[in-house]
Amino acid sequence: MFDLRWIRESPEAFDEGLTRRGLEPASARVLDLDARRRQAQTELQELQTARNTASKAIGEAKGRGQDAEAQMAEVARLKETMAKAEAAEREVAAELDELLSGLPNTPAPDVPDGPDESANVCLRTVGEAPAFDFEPKQHFDLGEALGLLDFETAAKLSGARFAVLRGALARLHRAIANFMIDLHTGEHGYTEVMPPYLVRDHVLYGTGQLPKFGDDLFRTTGDFWLIPTAEVPLTNLVAGDILDEAALPLRVTALTPCFRSEAGAAGKDTRGMLRQHQFDKVEMVSIAHPERSEEELERMTTCAEEVLKRLGLHYRVIVLSTGDMGFGARKTHDIEVWLPGQGAFREISSCSNCWDFQARRMNARFRPATGKGTRFVHTLNGSGVAVGRALIAVMENYQRADGSFEIPEVLRPFMGGMSAIGSDD
Q: Is 101 a catalytic residue?
């Protein structure tokens, strides 16, 4: 959501931000609706004053023993006029809210312009891709050959885009998740939270999934929504709150399942675990001071990178272009891990600074230590990281010619000392 005062004062900057996103300018329509709404509010105030005056006249007339029918008729007329004016004000306010709630955040000045991922810019590449003296396999070939990754049974249970993990592979998945949570809580200063996985409409509205992206979500028959990411409940922990400035930054993390319909992903990554309807992810959320959110984005990205560094994985950090960013983001860093089986980098984490875009939708504010009033916080979210994709990366990067694969040193304490899966090592 946007600051209407800013749009009134800087309509050109607002339109430029939308144009950089590939959208048509919208300031003229926004300002027209805003002017109509404010005019309706002014008329309501004038009508209220007139009704109060007429009501007072009734009392004065009766106090003098005079007939007050004319004044009473005027109050009735004003009451009817006010009801119509209130309905008109609600209608234009709803139209304005619908327009603003459907517009994405404006990009930061240093975000590269471009229509899609082709305009993304690589900030850095870390580590080296492993060298194999054999043709590396993809994760699904490795897992199925070991009898530990089962898509056929998953399809029998739930259909496409689901998987069943068994034995040591299921344990490794759990080990990776526990390693991430322990790292973020023990060393990175995040507080672990176990949030609800079912939320109401207003919660998804607060983080920007609704009303625009309802088709990407799963809805229950009881008017709940399954969370697409823990960003949704974690960010909304401060919805409607006024925090003390000293409490910022507020950093929380959670390991949760995520549920996505993948409505726009027909034909993409249909084999394997890369794109599923249900997956686990460790999420990081920061509620930050507006003047320090940019440094918080760098810090969050570093926290996500540390997961991959300790797993010994080759990756790169990308800043997304205006055409590739998410709806609520002002600036996004994607981390892409190298997958030898595909011979390509694939996204494993996305860290975004949303500025006050979500905070305005949630009415999340803080009270400065000095001065009057309140200010909106800045919200940030990042994958720390996607558990299934980390599992894929470990399987493919640590695979051996016989179809087995090693377990990274950092995960072995979570695996009861196991050093490999698929062999006697």
A: no
Domain spanning 4-101: CATH superfamily: Serine-tRNA synthetase, tRNA binding domain (1.10.287.40)
At residue 17, the pLDDT reads 97
pLDDT in tens, 343-369: 999 999 999 999 999 999 999 999 999
* Angstrom distances, CA of residue 261 to CA of 36, 213, 217, 264, 283: 39, 11, 5, 8, 19
Per residue in 126-174, pLDDT (tens digit) is 999 999 999 999 999 999 999 999 999 999 999 999 999 999 999 999 9
Token look-up 């176990």 returns 194
Sign of the dihedral through C-alpha 86, 92, 94, 97: negative
Is 21 in the active site? no
350, 352, 365, 383: which one is catalytic? Answer: 350
pTM, to two decimals = 0.92
Which contiguous run of DSSP H or E holds residue 17? Answer: helix 11-20
| Measured distance CA(381)–CA(419) in Å, rounded | 33
> Residue 204's Cα: distance from chain center in Å?
9
Retrieve residue 409's tokens. 């040193």
Residue 350 annotated as catalytic: yes
Fold of 117-421: BirA Bifunctional Protein; domain 2 (3.30.930)
Catalytic position from the list 20, 260, 299, 330: 260
The domain limits of the chain are 4-101, 117-421
Q: Considering the candidates 8, 275, 367, 412, report the single residue annotated as catalytic.
A: 275
Would you place residue 264 in the very low, low, confident or very high pLDDT band (cuts 50, 70, 90)? low
Residue 8 burial (10 A CB sphere; 0-12, 13-18, 19+)? middle
Catalytic annotation present for 260: yes
Residue 293 a catalytic site member: no
* pLDDT mean over 196-215: 96
Q: Is 280 helix (H, G, I), strand (E, B) or coil?
A: strand
Cα distance between residue 309 and residue 129, in whole Å: 13
Catalytic residue among 231, 389, 396, 406: 389
Give the mean pLDDT of the chain.
94
Residue whose C-alpha is closest to residue 345's, from 412, 294, 396 = 396
Selecting among 16, 192, 245, 347, the annotated active-site residue is: 347
